[in-house]
Amino acid sequence: MAEDIKVRYSDSDLENFKKIIVKKMEKAQNDLELLRSAYKNDGNNGTDDTSPTFKAFEEGSETMSKEANTQLAIRQEKFVRDLKNALLRIENKTYGICRVTGKLINPERLKLVPHATLSIEAKNMQS
Fold first, then answer.
1. Rounded CA gap, 67 and 78, in Å?
2. Which residue ranges make up each domain of the chain?
3. Which residue has the higher pLDDT, 85 or 34?
4. Tens digit of pLDDT for each residue in 54-109?
5. Is the pTM of this model over 0.90?
6. What phi, psi does 122 have (nearest 5°)?
7. Strand (E) positions, 1-127?
8. Cα–Cα distance, 121 to 125 (Å, whole number)
9. CA 106 → CA 43, 65, 96, distances in Å?
10. Hey, what CATH topology would domain 11-38+57-126 get?
């Protein structure tokens, strides 16, 4: 189906989208590194000499934080992967084409969600 699509974003439009994606990807990768360092950190907050109850509370809280950070890191990794795939679509000149309808995705949507592969129309059909 993609072969017979004649409508696509111009090279200059694609270049503009690429700048947006690269900027978002740099931030996303920095955020990912922060998350990774947060859940790899041993998290010893100096509670060794405090009451056992407080220490247990701290350890429970630390476990929850590590789990939350791990989940956030997994989501962030997926976001980075989606942005990389968007860059590939720019290279292939298929970026911004809805994979369901074959129509161009609204540029405002792409600015907000640069890794989108569905138009709002197609997304609503899924609901």
1. 17
2. 11-38+57-126
3. 85
4. 555 555 566 667 788 888 999 999 999 999 999 999 999 999 999 999 999 999 99
5. no
6. -70, -40
7. none
8. 6
9. 45, 38, 8
10. Four Helix Bundle (Hemerythrin (Met), subunit A) (1.20.120)
22-34 in b/e burial notation, b at 16+ Cβ within 10 A?
eebbeebeeebee
Write down the H helix ranges in the chain.
11-40, 52-91, 107-112, 120-126
Asked if 89 contacts 116 with a C-beta cutoff of 8 angstroms, the reply is: no
Label residue 18 exposed, middle or buried (CB < 10 Å: 0-12, 13-18, 19+): middle
Maximum C-alpha span of the chain: 70
118 — phi, psi (to 5°)?
-125, 140
Quote the tokens at residue 20. 């947006």
First to last CA, the chain: 23
Q: Which amino acid is at 83?
A: L
